[in-house]
Amino acid sequence: METLQLDVHHRLRSIQLELTLDARPGETLALVGPSGAGKSTVLRIVAGLTTPDRGTVALGDTVWLDTDRHVDLPPEQRSVGLVFQDYALFPHLDVRRNVSFGGAERVDELLARFDIAHLAGERPGAISGGERQRVALARALARNPRVLLLDEPLSALDAHTRATVRGELRDLLHELELPAIIVTHDFEDAAVLADRVGVLVAGKLLQVATPSELVAAPADAFVATFTGANVLEGTATLESDGLTHVVLDVGGSAWTTDHASGRVALAVHPWEVSLARETSPDSAVNHIHAPIASIVRLGNRARVRIGPLTAEITTGSIERLDLKEGEPVFATFKATATRVLAGAE
């Protein structure tokens, strides 16, 4: 198995895409970030659909692109399986013929593998979103690719189908043992599917790490927010007791065990925030008192917005505390649960 390596520089409207990265054999790398960051362009460059202003793309010792040496293999000469965001199935062809467009040798095997053999005679418009995604994956794998590229593979699915297909796709990626790159704007999808995640903003990689490392040690406030953390900006002062006191821009104060001074962003994840009707004398030194702005139930959990914070608690806690929108509560989190991020404006 071979490592996919790329080093590209390419002007995109008002931004400059500049990144160097690799996807190792059997590894899934996710690129996440806002729209317009250049994520899909990276896939198009690897696939040979876009030629960058300058750069290289290689799979092991095989060079697919080297602008300095005037090497630029066409898409059909690159061993890539590409699944487009909208799947790009041919509407006038049935499932079997769509899959065989990628390659005819493995059609029956792939139809069986993705449990779509019974749909072989159906056209894409007559099957569900999850089934269309399976057809697109089967077509991509019919090429016997050495690299798999997926552009927003779950975005077209409803929430119920998304959860099911996400699990199926994770198992498939582990089984294939190919270098794979997934583009998504959803960190939860990336965390489930990818071994490493690269956060791409305005054409630049802010951080590349495992999902757990991004959550535990985000490089800056954007990465923290993207992973779902609350980010509170303020001015920090290191106190004599070893704690850092942060005067928050939104009003009030917070303390952290991280050492810092000057302008900072303070990150705390929703599951570290507890709610109460009254404050209690414990080690959770940070208290924010504000009305509940919203309560969103997600199965047996709920996300509750209080002032500048979102807390994630059980629905049982919602009932026990009799929480209602508009009523004031205390949001509490420990100094040890916070992380200081430099670079706040």
What is the residue-mean pLDDT, rounded to a whole number? 91
Distance between the termini: 45 Å
Low-confidence stretches: none
User: What value does the Rg take, in angstroms?
Assistant: 24 Å
Strands, total number: 21
Q: Which strand order spans the largest sheet, edge to edge or round the barrel? A: 7-8-9-3-10-11
Give me the secondary-structure category: alpha+beta
Secondary-structure element order, N to C: EEEHEEEEHHHEHEHEEHHEEEEEEEEHEE
- Based on CA inertia axes, which overall geometry fits? globular
The percentage of residues in β strands lies in 35-45%
Q: Helical proportion? A: 10-25%
Report on the architecture of this protein.
- Helix 2 (95-102) runs parallel beside helix 4.
- The chain is α+β, with helices and mostly antiparallel strands and 345 residues long.
- The protein is globular, with a radius of gyration of 24 Å.
- Helix 5 (159-176) links the parallel strand 8 and strand 9.
- The protein has helices spanning 39-47, 95-102, 107-113, 129-141, 159-176, 187-193, 211-216, 221-226, 315-321, and strands at 4-12, 15-23, 28-32, 54-59, 62-66, 71-72, 80-83, 147-151, 180-184, 196-201, 204-209, 230-238, 244-248, 253-256, 262-268, 274-276, 286-298, 301-306, 309-314, 328-333, 339-342.
- The strands form four sheets. A six-stranded mixed β-sheet has the order 7-8-9-3-10-11, with helices on both faces. It has a five-stranded antiparallel β-sheet with strand order 2-1-4-5-6, covered by helices on one side.
- The longest helix has 18 residues, at 159-176.
